[in-house]
Structures are given as C-alpha cells and as structure tokens.
Amino acid sequence: MNVIHRRGWELPESAATPERFFFDRRAFLAASGAVALSLSPTIARAQRAADAPDPSIDLYPAKRNGKYTLDRPITDEEKNLTYNNFYEFGSSKAVAKPAQALKIRPWTIKIDGMVEKEQEIGIDDLMRKVGIEERLYRHRCVEAWSMTVPWSGFPLAKLVELAKPLASAKYLQMETFLDKSVASGQRQSWYPWPYREGLTMAEATNELAFMVTGAYGKPVAKQMGAPLRLAVPWKYGFKSIKSITHFTFTDKQPKSFWESLQAAEYGFWANVNPEVSHPRWSQASEEVLGTGQRRPTLLFNGYGEYVADLYKGLEKERLWA
C-alpha cells in the first residue's frame, strides 16, 4: 500500500477548488463571468467600458502547481473582489468600483538599472514568453486579517532571468503605475507616489516570490492589482505591490512607500512574526476573511521551510515590521 503522509498545514488539492471548473474550460469561464456580473453590475459595466477583450484570456485557467497547498479553504471570490487595499483608488476597502477606471491595455513594463541591457516588454508578450501556472497561497495583511487565493502567474525568478542583472545588483525595486487622471488617491500630495517596493535579490529569486497575472482561473481583477502584481506570502501584504510598470535592479536598498510614510511602523523586511506586535495592535492572531474565525498567526505565515534561511546572519536587522 502506498501511504501519503501530508504535512500538518496541507489540504488535499481536491478540497481547495471545485474540480468541475477545471474539467470543463467553457463551463469554468462561463461561470466566472456570471459570478463577476452578479457581484456588481456597476463594476461589470465599468470594466466593459474601460477595456477591450483581454488578449490573455486563452491562458486561463492555468495548470495548478500541486507543490503549493493550503491548510484552509480558499477565500470566497466575492469577498476577495470587494475587500481590497489599493490606496491609489482610496483609503477604504471599497475600491472595486473606482479601480475599474484603470486602463490595463496596452501595459508596458520597463526593466532597467544594473542589467546587461535595459528593455521594455508588453504584459501579454511577457506572459507568453515565460508561461503561467496556478498556485494556492495564503495572504496575511499587516492589519491582522488573512485570506487564501488561487493566484495565476509566474515565478519572479523568471523575470530576473529575463532581465539579466549584473552581479553588482543587490536589490530589485518595483514601482506601480502613476496616472492621477484615473487614480484619485494619487492626487493626495502627502503620499509618496508612485507606490514603491523592493526585495533583496535572494528574496526575488526565492521560489515563493510570484508575479501574479490572474486569480480564480481568469485574469486578475483590477482592484486586486491587474495586470501584474507581486505575491510574497511570507511577508505582510503591503509588500505585494500592485499594477507594476517598472522594475529597477540596484545596489541600494529601496525605500518603500509605507516606510517613507511611517518608518517606525512599516520597515523594508516586513516578514510575518506572531511574536512581534505592530505598534498599535497584536500580530499573534488573524481574522480569516469571510469566516469570522480567528487563527494563530504562523511565523513567516507558515512558509518558514522555504524562506527562513534567507535571514540567517541578519538577526540585527528589523525583520519583523
């Protein structure tokens, strides 16, 4: 008998997403469209008015990478579509409607800094060049709530490989779009726009670092960071920058958006640690979105086996903020 021993935090793949969606592509896409329309007719109409048909739609649903599993069910899609932090479109969670004003095609990504050759590439060309897959990830917000998402996309390491950084590059800086005509939040002069984030090269090439292009088996929604966002599941969610347009390889540690605003509360590393409180609240537990349940927070959000070694020798750094 072949006995499979699962780790304590793993969930059988069949329990994560209804299999019927993946056995019938047409049924899946039709159901996805129906769900999107039922969520908010206003959002759906704004979406249709803002964009032509997505040229990447044929890439979804992407094949799931079974290596990345969960310890809890996937968060309901409707909850994830209507509970979002995206300060470019407002400081509340109700940004889904205003975010539809963002035009995501054409979308060009600039790669520069310490690279062999600077380049620009369209998002659709990039996806087809590197290919996409689906991964199930946990997401832990610094505000002490969590969710789980079936992200589609590709490892950030593939973009690093495409960029051909010089050996002297120590960090990867990322910036979001800047367009005050559609993003009302960017008209607030006290914020240091554009949104900026960064990783060390070791973090950027870690297997968990993931460039998101889709969610729930279709292109990612605008309010979730379309057409390209970052997912680094062992860090607090504000590190997962949305709607990225610019990657810069550098030898200087980037100063991120929230660090620029309030360095005492939001640092560069932002690794999840239940034992280190935010200055204004505990991080020992988290509310699981859509369930009302609270769960104990896990060190590195439960991904320590993948990332703990990245921080050996850095004990004097402020890793948990």
Topology at a glance:
Layout: H1 20-23, H2 25-39, H3 41-50, H4 77-82, H5 96-99, E1 108-113, E2 119-122, H6 123-130, E3 133-140, E4 145-155, H7 156-163, E5 171-176, E6 196-200, H8 201-204, E7 210-215, E8 218-219, E9 229-231, E10 244-250, H9 257-261, E11 285-288, E12 293-296, H10 304-307
Parallel strand pairs: 1-10, 4-11
Antiparallel strand pairs: 1-2, 3-4, 4-7, 5-6, 5-10, 7-8, 7-9, 11-12
Structure commentary:
It is a single chain. The chain has 321 residues and is of the alpha+beta class. The chain has a single domain (13-306), classed as Sulfite Oxidase, Chain A, domain 2, CATH 3.90.420.10. It contains 10 helices and 12 strands. The protein is globular, with a radius of gyration of 19 Å. The protein starts with 19 loop residues before the first helix and ends in a 14-residue tail after the last helix.
